[in-house]
Amino acid sequence: MKIVRTLLLILGIFIILFCIFGYIDYNGQKMELGAKQEKHIPSSINTDGGTITLSAVSEKYDKTQFGFFVIQNNSTHTLTIPYENTADHLKDGKWYEVVLNGLEFPDKTITLKPGKSFKLDIATPNYKIGKYRFVQHFRDENGKEHVLAAPFEIVWPSLKNVLGQFD
After folding, report:
1. How confident is the model over 90-105, as pLDDT tens digits?
2. Where do the Bacterial Ig-like domain residues begin and end (predicted)?
């Protein structure tokens, strides 16, 4: 009986570690690389009415966390932001769009008034370890399209984060 309990404990630990380190995809999503993307996408733009900025809340996220990003509208424009957001992966010095098969975004938009900010997120367990940029497209009230990107990195989870999940 003690041997069976020990084997079940070892199997359970193995399955948990297997999930944490990304060998079993979060929500069943499989990360693939799509089309090559623009080399440089700015993280802020100056408009005739002020500055619009996209930034990562943290420069690094581990695979057990969600990545959070803030778009700050310090302009006089009202922005329309689609709920759909994407990420590009840096591979061999080139940016490639990340394609998550099976992931769908709701058909909705967010309106961001002047002087306001909005927090966006992505599920980092869907992504492989490496360097990325969060990419957000949006339009101003005149219909002019803009795109911003915020760099971030996905790293292996620290032991502190892994053990903290079981408190």
Report:
1. 988 888 888 765 555 5
2. 52-152
pLDDT at 22: 45
Query: What would you report as the CA-atom Rg of the chain, rounded to the nearest whole angstrom?
Result: 19
Name 135's bridge partners: 86, 149
- Complete domains list, the chain, with CATH: 2-164 (2.60.40.10)
What residue type is assigned to position 69 of the chain? F
**Which structure tokens are listed for 66?**
């969600």
Give the closest residue to 110 by CA, choosing from 133, 134, 86, 137. Answer: 137
DSSP state of 27: G
Rounded to the nearest integer, the mean pLDDT of the chain is: 79
Other Cβ atoms less than 10 A from the Cβ of 107: the count is 8
pLDDT, residue 124, reads: 78
DSSP 100-152: EET----S-EEEE-TT-EEEEEEEGGGS-SEEEEEEEEEE-TT--EEEEEEEE
